[in-house]
Design brief:
6 helices, single chain, about 10% strand, elongated, mainly alpha, three-stranded antiparallel β-sheet, about 160 residues
Length: about 160
């Protein structure tokens, strides 16, 4: 039997929900970056945003628009800094949004098992497993705070460059 105190899976689920909310709320701000850079209204930018099926595709579009030759260097750099931060934060969000959970019958910490397959030169890699422990909770809290800070930063870019808000 495991002597550790029982893991609070409900607390983890609450954090996973908060992480998903913070991510979705911040990702939606890409609409304003698309609108401003493509010189379209928010409604048109929303259609473009929703037509792209993944966060990665949306981020790629925003970065490509930022790299257009007529874009000022400071504007480009501010946008790229935001999108690169989003990409770094997406790894943790993807880990908990695209996984299944395994529970230890002896009372140990649950694990996340990533539902992803990777082709390697001579085989396949799948089912990467990670413990859900206090370190995982701390990482989620840090990511939620980082997303909040990024959200504020994106709004400042939107205002600074006069993008549709």
């Amino acid at each position: 039997m495991n002597d550790k105190s029982p893991f609070d899976f409900d607390a983890f689920l609450l954090l996973a929900g908060r992480l998903n909310y913070a991510w979705t709320n911040t990702e939606s701000l890409l609409i304003h970056l698309i609108a401003g850079q493509a010189k379209v209204d928010k409604e048109t930018a929303t259609i473009i945003f929703l037509t792209l099926n993944t966060a990665r595709a949306r981020i790629d579009l925003v970065e490509r628009l930022a790299k257009m030759p007529d874009r000022a260097t400071t504007e480009r750099d501010a946008i790229i800094a935001c999108t690169q931060k989003m990409l770094r934060l997406s790894a943790l969000r993807n880990r908990y949004n695209h996984c299944i959970y395994a529970f230890d019958t002896d009372g140990g910490n649950p694990r996340s098992i990533l539902m992803r397959i990777a082709d390697r030169r001579d085989g396949l890699k799948m089912g990467q497993s990670s413990d859900i422990d206090q370190e995982a909770l701390d990482n989620m809290n840090d990511a939620i705070q980082s997303l909040s800070n990024l959200n504020t930063r994106i709004w400042s870019v939107v205002k600074q460059y006069g993008y549709p808000a």
